[in-house]
Amino acid sequence: MALLLEATTQVGKREDLANYVSQVDAHNTPVQSLARKGLKPGNSLMSWQVTALDSVTNTGTVDGVDVTTYDSNVRALCQNHCQIYRLSTRVSNLAQDLSVVGGVKNELAFQTAHKLVEIKRMMELSFCSTQAPQADDGSSTPYMTRGLANWISTSAGSVLATPTGFTTPATSIETTATTSNITDSHIQDVLSSIFAETGTISDYDMPIGRTLKRAFTDRLTGVRTAESAADIGITATQARTFSPQKGRSVEFRVDTFTGDFGTIRLHPSNWLDDQRDGLTLLMSDIEVRYAELPSILALPDSGGGPIRQIRAVAALVLKSAGLNQGMFNLGS
Q1: Which of 187-196, 222-231, 290-299 has the lowest mean pLDDT?
Q2: d(CA 192, CA 201)
Q3: How far apart (Å, rounded) are the C-alpha atoms in residues 64 and 40?
Q4: Is the dihedral of CA 94, 97, 103, 109 positive or negative?
Q5: How many Å from the N-terminal Cα to the C-terminal Cα in the chain?
Q6: Which residue of 51, 127, 276, 303 has the lowest C-beta tally within 10 Å?
Q7: Which CATH architecture best describes the domain 30-50+76-226+240-329?
Q8: 132 Cβ contact partners less than 8 Å away, ≥ 6 residues apart
Q9: Where would I find the H helices in 5-71?
Q10: Nearest 10 degrees: CA dihedral of 263, 267, 272, 276?
Q11: Radius of gyration over alpha carbons of the chain, in Å?
Q12: 41: Cβ–Cβ under 8 A, 6 or more apart, which residues?
């Protein structure tokens, strides 16, 4: 009788396939999670008004003199377009009705669920980006909504331009520091600049790239020592201290920065144009307006298998048009 060997002569072995599918990609979308959900837009072009108080002067008035000059506060119009976000998925009839896949009870439902997550990421990418607003031309050019990194700019832009006097001050955008020399003074300067515009000490949320997040931790933790006052700053030696709790763990990270003019909460994000960037956002000024919430539409099946479209229509609204916000755009 022949010896039956597992490696060479055994026939009919089943594949050992675990009954689950592990998703290793789980990026967060902090802007959509934190932003307010505004009213449904009434048009593909949305408009809202901004105003600011005049600068005050300390002047007196002579008794008995009639009024001859007049002042009024100016209102300005801000605008942004909606954007259509669309993905689709399709599975063949055999893939849907015949195949048995480990961890997948329904192939079409599995693919559709993942596309819903992807469309949320697509929206987050556009909301954080430097993309300018764009009008649909009916043929090849789609509507595009203006991203936060485009709003937070010293430039008004050429399409749906930021009104005069409402662009972001240059001092609210940190570009001089690098990820290797950023200090608390750079962050304080941005908060101070925002306070100069608003007069309010506020809490801010910062979607922050992973490279800049590391820079915050590496450069802002520990104590800097210097032999003279002239050496204090980026040339000083950094002495790091660790405080293990019960001798078993060490915490070494920066999640919140509190300065003279506000607090910044850091939210690591993979959806910034550059991982050395960070958006200092007053979230009460930011809205996402949905003309259509992410939804699933069954498209006609012409025989090749079921089709699902995943679509959303949304726009970003920055009520303050950039004055109440800041940004870090650092070099390496």
Answers
A1: 222-231
A2: 9
A3: 53
A4: positive
A5: 72
A6: 303
A7: Alpha-Beta Complex (3.90)
A8: 144, 146, 150, 157, 158, 159
A9: 30-34
A10: 70
A11: 27
A12: 82, 289, 291, 315
Query: By C-alpha distance, which of 284, 278, 246 is closest to 264?
Result: 278
Neighbour count for residue 193 (Cβ, 10 Å): 19
For the purposes of burial, counting CB atoms within 10 Å of the CB of 105, is it exposed (0-12), middle (13-18) or buried (19 or more)? exposed
CA distances, 239 to each of 209, 234, 292 (Å): 25, 13, 53
Indicate the burial class of 168 (C-beta count within 10 angstroms; 0-12, 13-18, 19 or more). buried
- From 193, 149, 187, 207, select the one nearest 263 (Cα to Cα): 187
Domain extents for the chain? Answer: 30-50+76-226+240-329
Q: From 150, 274, 136, 259, select the one nearest 210 (Cα to Cα).
A: 274
Tokens of 300: 């006609």
Mean pLDDT of 256-269: 96
Write the Ramachandran bin of 157: left for phi over 0, alpha for psi from -120 to 50, otherwise beta.
left
Q: Are strands 36-37 and 286-299 parallel, antiparallel or unpaired?
A: parallel
Instruction: Sort residue 232 into left (φ over 0), alpha (ψ -120 to 50) or beta.
Output: beta
Look at 95 and 278; give whichever has higher pLDDT.
278
Token readout for 96 is 């849907």
**DSSP helix, strand, coil percent of the chain (3-state; round to 5):** 20, 30, 50
